[in-house]
Amino acid sequence: MSLPVRTLGTAALLVVLGTTACTPVRTHQGYVVDHDLVASVQPGIDTRDSVAQTLGQPSFTSQFNEGEWFYVSRDSSNFAFRNPRVKTQTTLRIRFDASGNVASVDETGVELAASISPYGKTTPTLGRGRSFFRDLFGNIGTVGAPGAGGAGGGGNTGP
């Protein structure tokens, strides 16, 4: 083989390897939505038991009452070591009335998902800043001081 053919072959191989290394990694999380099964859940007809038999257990339930079940499905993709980006998200909310019958079935997408940006690795709080030395030496002079409690922390132990 001549040198230009080897060079072209090596360049073509590098281009092929470079393009396959940048293919996105696609992931699915949560409930697998079957629209036929979701459409079969009818308000006023189905109950908690029939919904559990048809759709399975929910992704999570409402924390404040027993009246809502949520089924969450999310598809995302990312390149190499980047953070994944949500491509599609479906949230199915089923509301129940007091007797356990389905009151409504709602389906929403990614537009209602909140984007949260954490602030570093700590949560900012009000109050004084803490440091190692303040924690170590901060109680000097306060043990046994008037109004500071005392060693037992019980305060006033009078008759």
UniProtKB/TrEMBL annotation:
Would the keyword Membrane turn up in this protein's UniProt record? yes
Is Membrane one of the keywords? yes
For this protein, the record's InterPro entries field holds:
BamE (IPR026592), BamE-like (IPR037873), BamE_dom (IPR007450)
Question: Any idea which UniProt keywords this protein has?
Answer: Cell outer membrane, Membrane, Signal
GO terms for cellular component: Bam protein complex
**What positions does the domain Outer membrane protein assembly factor BamE occupy?**
30-104
Judging by the UniProt lineage, the source's domain of life is Bacteria
Pfam families hit by this protein? BamE (PF04355)
GO BP term, pick one: protein insertion into membrane
| Entry protein name | Outer membrane protein assembly factor BamE
What are the leading ranks of the lineage?
A: Bacteria, Pseudomonadati, Pseudomonadota, Alphaproteobacteria, Sphingomonadales
